[in-house]
Amino acid sequence: xxxxxxVVIANVYARADQMNNxxxxxxxxxxxxRTEPGCIKYELHQDLSDETHFTFIEEWTNExxxxxxxxxxxxxxxxxxxxxxxAKPVEILKYKKLx
Length: 99
What we know:
By secondary structure, the chain is α+β, with helices and mostly antiparallel strands. 33% of the residues lie in helices and 30% in strands. The chain has 3 helices and 4 strands. The chain has a 4-stranded antiparallel beta sheet. Strand 2 (39-46) and strand 3 (53-60) form a beta hairpin. Helix 1 packs antiparallel against helix 3 (73-82). The protein is globular, with a radius of gyration of 14 Å.
């Protein structure tokens, strides 16, 4: 069986008073990440019923590409920057693509 891609769903909840700041942080992260080798898809979505809830939907060629992403300077910087603007810890879920 050929190796399947890795899909990541990451949920980020901003503090209501930090919307402009978090959008700036997430925008920079998204733009830089889309240029990474192994990144197939990196989309940022906002919940229609809760504007403070953001969801990344990502697809990576393999686990190695995802782990390289976690070690990039822009990811490490964003991880540090969001600490002051999030309402609760970021939730990261990983899946393998089946169909």
